[in-house]
Write a structure and sequence with these properties.
With 90 residues, the chain is of the alpha+beta class. It is built from four helices and three strands, in the order H-H-E-E-E-H-H. It has helices at residues 3-9, 16-24, 66-73, 79-87; strands at residues 31-34, 39-43, 52-53.
Amino acid sequence: AGVEECCLEGLPFVNPSYCRAKTMGIVSRKWFVDYDEGLCHQDCEVGTGPSCAINTDPAVTYYDSPEECCASKLGFQNQPKCHADSTGTL
């Protein structure tokens, strides 16, 4: 079985995108919530972008955009502020 099949059918609590990225030694470039900081980070190498962080939680939900992440996981916050904090823009 290939990486895709293994990650889709593997452990049910592991996000398939996380599995694929870690198995292949790459980053997903998807967005995930950081409740401690109250913002969303992009799963990418630290230092390669203002929002980059390496996700270490195999069960985290990934999103395609910071807006989607903020709305889904930090909906109680001011959304324009969440987007700005997450992307490092003012």
